[in-house]
Fold these 4 entries.
Entry 1:
Amino acid sequence: MSDNSASININFDTNQLDNNALLHLYKSLLKPRLIEEKMLVLLRQGKISKWFSGIGQEAIAVGVTLALNEDEYILPMHRNLGVFTSRNIPSYRLFAQWQGKASGFTKGRDRSFHFGTQIYKIVGMISHLGPQLGVADGIALASKLKNKNQVTAVFTGEGGTSEGDFHEALNVASVWQLPVLFCVENNGYGLSTPINEQYNCQHIADKGIGYGMESHIIDGNNIIEVYTKVTEIATSIRNNPRPVLLEFITFRMRGHEEASGTKYVPQALMDAWALKDPVVNFELFLKAQGVLNEQEDSQIKEAILNEINENLNIAFVEEDIVPNESIELNDVYQEFKYQSIAYDTETKEIRFIDAISESLKQSMERHQDLVIMGQDIAEYGGAFKITEGFVEQFGRERIRNTPICESAIIETAMGLSIAGMKAVVEMQFADFVSSGFNPVVNYLAKSHYRWGQNANVVLRMPCGGGVAAGPFHSQTNEAWFTKTPGLKVVYPAFPYDAKGLLNTAINDPNPVLFFEHKALYRSVRQEVPIDYYTLPFGKASLLRYGNDVTIISYGAAVHWALETLDRNLDIKADVIDLRTLQPLDTETIFTSVKKTGKAIILHEDTLFGGIASDISALIMEHCFEYLDAPVKRVGSLETPIPFASQLEEQYLPKNRFEKALINLMKY
Ligand SMILES: Cc1ncc(C[n+]2csc(CCOP(=O)(O)OP(=O)(O)O)c2C)c(N)n1
């Protein structure tokens, strides 16, 4: 690799590392380089798919990984092969991962470095780059809560620092003093975008000042500097938990991914950085210092190449995955064995809002590893006062006021789950989940399917209209989530269901969106067991029995349906309250429709793309021969939800339902 006449262009200082330590750094640095060189050959031969090269940047991934303890989590990016090799993952597993084979980490479901592994304490990225920064916060929060004195390291490119996730994650980490090492690899370009089009400050490290965070600039091509500085900083963080921002200066020597080339990079820049190659320079340095001779060097390289070839062979001979529908479907959710729990049948009449509060309180008592997070939920008690008094009972560590950053907090909840804890996140209003949409639908929803990591997270969603709160405090946005495999969606209409289902949601290791209709909070009362109990998901409740028609609904609309029937219409209806939308109790729906021959679905959501459309389609597909009339859907107007109460009344389907029902009966 080296040319004897070449000069050393990196300022190495052995920093009191002994020869063994220096050689260990060298071997660790060589391995990802030699693997990559092999991969580039295989790529040209069409034997592997897309490749994001980390050539020239290896010292950062390798140095950071070696500076951490093996039980400390690292969240790498697409150019950080050195993280994986330095954690000693058997190479054939990496090769199998890149070839979509079973010995990889995702059963062929995700590519390249998009995977995590609890065995090696590595949590790979999702393509969206930024979300893992907040996930690192969650892992670090868990280690802080458990007094583990551990550091969590998370990587991003300088391009990724432009994402809101970066800002949110650093801000949360600083406000909560979380032991996170934010490692920014500043490699000059984000795809074709040079740094002057990416940010407008002198150094990314300067951003630390704005977050109240210590920061350092490190020569990312100098393995000794990376390793020794990060070792020192990590040691200090373990003793004194806090976030630190590290800007590693380096350069991307190849295209964004292999197909895209580097035409847009000035040649002079490429040439200057080629002289600073981290592997070649270190090799020359070790030889100049007498730590390594030519013969040893050849032996080291030969040993690594042999290992690569042997492992490649293992991966190549492995059979391709044979698709199996039920295996795919079974892995979307972590298996959850529902346990029916009921202690005492003594009841008390409470409001819907009290039911939610009781569930949270009793769940906090049962699960010592449960943390609740949300805006203003601590002393203030939350926008709806649901967590009033919780801080006094459970303390500020577990009842956490958050900054206004839905994305980072949902990501933090994911990180807590990765570290084995549970989280409930209160959206102040369900509308605001749009500010955290990406981690919900891409991170929480897909992790179990992708690499077997559950998201033990409940998002509480105070939702719905009828309270004259306008377009951004009234939405019922369940359909944004029922569409996404991997999420569970619960939407109770009564206090009894709310308490039992929220308890189950917290027990369930999968991500659950728990919709709480605000208009029901203080208007609906019911006798509810005082003690803790659970109710199963996927079981609708049949509130009324009748042979004329099946009315299917959930949430506040259930009450509108009941009120309509109570107006002496002389219609005998089965009224089905779905209670959970995902899973959906199709059996109860089909059984009823087969009996009545007519079905009407009422929901508060707008019709197009709402769940009524799917239920209608399911009825057509499964009950067509039993139907005496077309399935009818009734929902809100196809507009945003308006503020003025007379407009809102027109928007909501409450007053249109009766007419639609009567028409259906006449059909
Ligand atoms: C949210 C999002 N937007 C755009 C992309 C497409 N994309 C993938 S990597 C990348 C550049 C990232 O640059 P940087 O963070 O500097 O990392 P580098 O690739 O230079 O290592 C872009 C634009 C993406 N994956 N996700």
Entry 2:
Amino acid sequence: MTELKSPPVESQPSVEDPGPVIDTSKMSSGQRAALELTEAAREAAQEPSFVSGLFMGSFDLSRIRQFPAQSAEDRDQGDAFLQKLDQLLRKKTDPDEIDRTGEIPPAVIEALARLGAFGIKISPEYGGLGLSQTNYCRAAMLLGGWCGNLTALLSAHQSIGVPQPLILFGTEAQKRKYLPRVARGEISAFALTESGAGSDPATMQTHAEPTPDGEAFILNGEKLWCTNGTKAGVIVVMAKTPSKLMGGKSKEQITAFIVETDWPGVEVIHRCRFMGLRSLYNGVMKFTNVRVPRENILLAEGKGLRVALTTLNTGRLTLPAACVGLTRRCLEITRRWAADRVQWGAAIGKHAAIADKIARMAASTFAMESMTLLAASAVDRDKHADVRLEAAVCKMWGTEQAWEIVNDAVQVRGGRGYETAASLKARGEEPIPLERFLRDSRINTIFEGSSEIMRLFIAREALDPHLKVSGAVLNSKLPVGKRLRAAIKAALFYTRWYPKQWLPRERFTLHTSRFSPHFRYAARASRRLARSLFHAMLRQGPKLERQQLLLGRFVDIGAELFAITATCLRAESLLRSGNGAADGPQLTKLVDYFCQASRLRIEEKFRALHRNADRTSYRLAQEVLKTEH
Ligand SMILES: Cc1cc2nc3c(=O)[nH]c(=O)nc-3n(C[C@H](O)[C@H](O)[C@H](O)COP(=O)(O)OP(=O)(O)OC[C@H]3O[C@@H](n4cnc5c(N)ncnc54)[C@H](O)[C@@H]3O)c2cc1C
């Protein structure tokens, strides 16, 4: 059994007023505006999370404690709903038909609404089911393995649509007005993206001007790719509101409004269609002089980006949960096929190239599930828990792994993997929908924060403790005196912190844990990660912010370390509780394999910190952009 003793908490840097932590003086005005707006919307870290500690060399398991087993009561509540949802999906829905026709039958939407599937996390006080984040993720897992279109409908509605920001930031009056409606099945959506504003919301054009009496705002603009927009009754719309003078400077403001789609001036001008998710009710929404009452502002004027980013922090957990469902299904398909299909005198699963894919699928699926459940349980313990980094890692790592797994599953099925379910059926074979899964899942690494943006986001958070200590030293916009004082503080901090990153010290006590070597490796690798990040800061100075590939490698190492930790903790918890006892040896092998493979990926990333072709590739790309090639 593993006993996790609380280590002395790593002293985190504390500087009362670090001033602006990022030097924006050498940036273009567009870059500066984007950065300043996002920085202003960042939530201040409450207390360091486990993943943030990994980048500072603090492998602090006390921040997780033990892998949180779901309480029997919570599990029973979830099971009761999941059973009904499972029945409904199997008996009343045909995902291939939904894909083929590009429409979800209204009867299916009504049945889901009657079941409460539009208000899973909404408290019963407001007409919802009041289930936990863990049970919500379990529902996403079930949906994810069944139908991408239904997953997107329910997820866009409650992970990013009106329920989530309303639960987090709504006033009591807003909650009483809107939560019962959306819990009953009035579909909601989230409108941030515009044609010119994708990953960078600072460039948004949609704007809202206050009326002369200040009672309302007049909203004008156009939003792109609003999922559920064509069916929604109510939408959260992000818009620019008049800039405010702050510290003598004019600061751009983004505000979040709850907008009802039957108000005059709201139109759907186009329904967008995609490679996959063919029944997505996704549209271009136009707002022409829409009068939005002031009481429909979420949180406060100018806090829209904070609403959007915080909503996405927990909202992002739905996607990796759905990916778990999808990859479990791929594993099930692959396992059967690789055992039955005989080529070259043996079942294809006996050929090493295919066997390797199957092992990776099984291990990564278990890891993905462990990470997602771990992050979800943190939200259940504390609704305002800071799971920014955990959720972002789950989203980035989970969606990338899922894409590889679906791709591998198609490869293992060979030509049949590429054939549509309808065609397979027509010629008498089992209609296995891998082709649909591949199309539907391609978007996962793009929306709700693309992989590239997730890496930048995680890197920003990982660097935060260092920026707080030394950002002011490097900031050429600050007066010399302030920079000198900051330099003294930074020197004091690093003379204590840095030597610790070389000392082999166990920050936890493990008794007879089968997985101790993996925990020890992760603890050592976390210190190496912290050292390497620090060395990179010394080498690169403020330029490090722009070294995306280098930062991406640090992020990938941190993500793998979180994956190892979550996997081992969950396996240990399963073995301890007896749930995994029957499968003990298999579970142990699966975990050992995952950790071994993850170590290899980590070591490769460490190597690539020093041996890479980053500069050459960047130069070449710039030449290609100038069409010199
Ligand atoms: C099916 C679908 C559903 C969607 N649903 C919604 C919704 O409900 N609500 C909503 O508001 N939006 C929605 N979106 C929008 C989605 O979130 C955006 O597509 C996403 O944010 C990326 O924006 P973009 O497509 O404009 O890409 P861009 O921002 O133009 O980026 C293009 C590429 O460049 C990369 N990139 C951009 N900036 C950087 C950088 N600084 N460094 C490195 N790489 C960078 C990106 O990662 C991407 O690979 C949806 C999109 C689709 C396709």
Entry 3:
Amino acid sequence: MADVFESAAPMNTPVPLRRKLIAGGCTLLVLPLIPKLAHAATIVAVRTWPADEYTRVTLEMDTELKAEHFTLDKPHRLVVDIDGVRLSSAINDLVSRIKPNDPYIRSVRVGQNRPNVVRLVFDLKQDVAPQVFTLKPIGEYKYRLVLDLYPKVAQDPLMALLKDSQNDPLAGVLENLAQNGAAEAPIPSVKGQRLPPPEPSRSPAPSLAIPAPQGNSRRNRPILIALDPGHGGEDPGATGKRGTHEKDIVLQIAQRLKKMIDAQPNMRAYLTRDRDYFVPLNVRVQKARRVQADLFISIHADAWVKPSARGSSVWALSEHGATSTAARWLAKKENDADLIGGIDLGSHNRQVAQVLLDLSTGAQINDSIKVGSQILQEIGKINRLHRNHIERAGFAVLKAPDIPSILIETAFISNPEEEALLRTPAHQQKIASAVLSGVKDYFAANPALARRA
Ligand SMILES: [Zn+2]
């Protein structure tokens, strides 16, 4: 079959053409092509982040580059032409970075397509809605070209929740929830994606299932808690002296907590991310709303310039800006995740984000302070507290108008002692246990939840 490499210009630039371009540059000094030829950009790093939700490929380079892309069918391929770059070992590295279990990419081919144009051909396992964009330098990163390969049909967080509950005695209740009450929250999607078709008759739940009464799913379902491990993928979060990444620690703690919650007879947990990949802040909120979570808990680890800073803290949303300079600094740091992780959402998602921001969140904040106080009290039994009251700041991830939402800074990863603690399974387990106790206290004291009223 015809190949995109074969059908395009030869891989090796004919020398006469290159000479002609350079010669032209001598007489036309303003020709914009010339600086690129003189200083072909260098790809300094290549990273891939495969996940069920989407696979990301990041090319990091010392200059901003332009890229064009198109998709081909039969078989599905994504072709990306990067302008102003020559083949190098870093970019050839990409070939070995593709993992066999990548849900979207089967393999990649790299070639010099035209003078200064490198062509990447991704052979795909399924049709994709690609998002290709560049990011300016931030933090540790130089310029980045980001290729996000989303499935053509957006994934519904509700379906992920059901898939997770296959052998769960509560599967039937969750199934009922999925069929009866999800329309109010949109499925997060990106430009070019279709939404999954409505499924009135999904495959029946396993035989263990408890039949749930129709139209009354809220009251008869378990308490659903959305756990949100901060950062992920391109965004490592804070990093400790020993190289511990916040994104890894908080995922481990969230997974431990999920296990504990799922072992409760009347509670289930949903993870906004279950692997090492980047999830935009408002998508985390949308996922929690889609599964109609009763509570949203974002899990983080703090950092400060002075290694002596230590202790846990619990945060609720502030409607009118942060209460202190330190709070503002922390909120900015956590909200910067989208800039570091890289985001290019379509207008659809921006509108949803705006709606979330515009809605009144007063009742949500009251409940968040209540549940946060219970959790803070429990954490105080196992770790020093950085502040012994709930703090407030404008974290983007806490902005669901209808779900009590808190953010826990479990400890300071920048404090060597606490970094060491955060790495141990025993301490992670203690944190998870304390959070669960606080959550149980809250629901015991407040059986009439805001969301169910
Ligand atoms: Zn964080």
Entry 4:
Amino acid sequence: MEFKTADFAPTNGNRISNFSFDEIGDDHFYTGLETPMKSDAFEMSDLEKKEKISDLFAQIMDVMGLDLTDDSLKGTPNRVAKMYIEEIFSGLNPANKPKIALFENKYQYNQMLVEKNITFYSNCEHHFVPIIGQAHIAYVSSGKVIGLSKLNRIVQYYAKRPQVQERLTNQIAMELKAILNTEDIAVIIDAKHLCVSSRGVKDDTSATVTSYYSGVFEKPHKIAELQNYLNQ
Ligand SMILES: [Zn+2]
């Protein structure tokens, strides 16, 4: 991709819904449920990706004037490349999706199951700085149950992508619906965006809450019951 000086100038021709990128600024629009990926996203091996990212990150550091011969800095491009592919963006690759086994609902438990305070670390796709938060998940079994640690793994898989919080919330909900074969799903995410707290408007105390409710969780008394569990 080639950048033009105009892309960084105060105004440019790129617009979403009649707003220019400048007007949108830090308002974190997103365009859909699926993470926008190129069709050839996985033609390159992870090893090739790491080598390429390392070269490119070294160029970024070089442009900023950092001395890459310094002992403290010279390993950074490799470390960043490894971290991107193997850790913080590993959820882009479907090969890393957790394998989920379901069990018969032997106890005939037919009330909501709530797994709360699932801590996750993600990254804002608009600034590539951390989003740190907690996810709360609830579902009512349609006959199968899922291992509790697997709920956590699903959250971590989708968090390990460049994300926006609304999409993260919806992607987790869609995955749970598909796996558990039920509409009775709730996902609530409460997160702090470092692009808001450490830069831009520098608001250190605000948090963003997003939610997805479907099936029985669209009923006000079920939402109230869930909120009650979350507040305990
Ligand atoms: Zn951001």
